[in-house]
């Protein structure tokens, strides 16, 4: 009985111009492959310096927006829904871009944000890493600050010696 009533309801909804939302598994597979390729592009782009942190953020956010749009359009069936819902989604992305743009402009307009009384590490040298071939630690690059050592005192130098290592007689 329930299958007959479901068939009648389905026929009634199709009669009023509503479309059935069906997507084949091949369409979902294509979207999955596109999302995986975009994820690989995201990881690759994160390892590239595009000149400024603002450019890096804009590129990362653009790729993330494309991926989120694909998920919303196909997996959440937004492309088959009423056009007003798509307009709301696109306008929310535009407002998000404007607000993040204001944050980036504000962050780039500032100089050093640390207080003048800051006494913590500014630029720490890299930690030593292991040489993969020999499994030996590779020394870190030399720090730019000179190393200051205490001068040796004459008492700590030990007995005074003369020529050829013989002790001097006083």
Spatially, the strands of the biggest sheet line up as 1-2
Distance, first to last CA: 122 Å
Q: What share of the residues does DSSP label as strand, in percent?
A: under 5%
What is the 3D form?
flat
What's the helix count? Answer: 4
Residue windows where pLDDT falls under 50 for at least 5 positions: none
Radius of gyration: 34 Å
- The overall average pLDDT, rounded, is 74
How much helix is in the residues?
40-55%
Taking the sheet with the most strands, its summary is: 2 strands, antiparallel
SSE pattern, N- to C-terminal: HHHHEE
Q: How many beta-strand runs? A: 2
Structural class: mainly alpha
Verbal overview:
This protein is mainly α. It has a domain at 23-108. The protein is 50% helix and 2% strand. Strand 1 (129-130) and strand 2 (137-138) form a beta hairpin. Helix 2 (25-46) runs antiparallel to helix 3. The radius of gyration is 34 Å and the shape is flat.
Secondary structure layout plus pairing:
Layout: H1 2-15, H2 25-46, H3 53-75, H4 83-108, E1 129-130, E2 137-138
Task: Give me a quick take on this structure.
The chain has four helices and two strands.
Annotation keywords:
flat; single chain; 50% helix; 4 helices; 170 residues; mainly alpha
């Amino acid at each position: 009985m329930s299958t007959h009533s479901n068939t009648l309801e389905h026929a009634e909804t199709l009669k009023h111009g509503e479309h059935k939302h069906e997507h084949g598994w091949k369409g979902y597979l294509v979207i999955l492959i596109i999302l995986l390729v975009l994820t690989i592009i995201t990881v690759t782009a994160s390892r590239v310096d595009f000149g400024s942190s603002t450019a890096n953020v804009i590129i990362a956010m653009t790729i993330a927006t494309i991926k989120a749009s694909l998920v919303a359009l196909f997996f959440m069936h937004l492309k088959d829904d009423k056009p007003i819902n798509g307009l709301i989604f696109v306008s929310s992305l535009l407002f998000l871009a404007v607000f993040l743009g204001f944050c980036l402009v504000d962050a780039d307009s500032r100089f050093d944000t640390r207080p003048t009384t800051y006494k913590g590490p500014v630029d720490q040298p890299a930690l030593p890493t292991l040489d993969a071939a020999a499994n030996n630690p590779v020394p870190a690059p030399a720090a730019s600050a000179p190393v200051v050592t205490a001068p040796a005192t004459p008492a700590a130098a030990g007995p005074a010696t003369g020529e050829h290592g013989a002790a001097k007689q006083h």
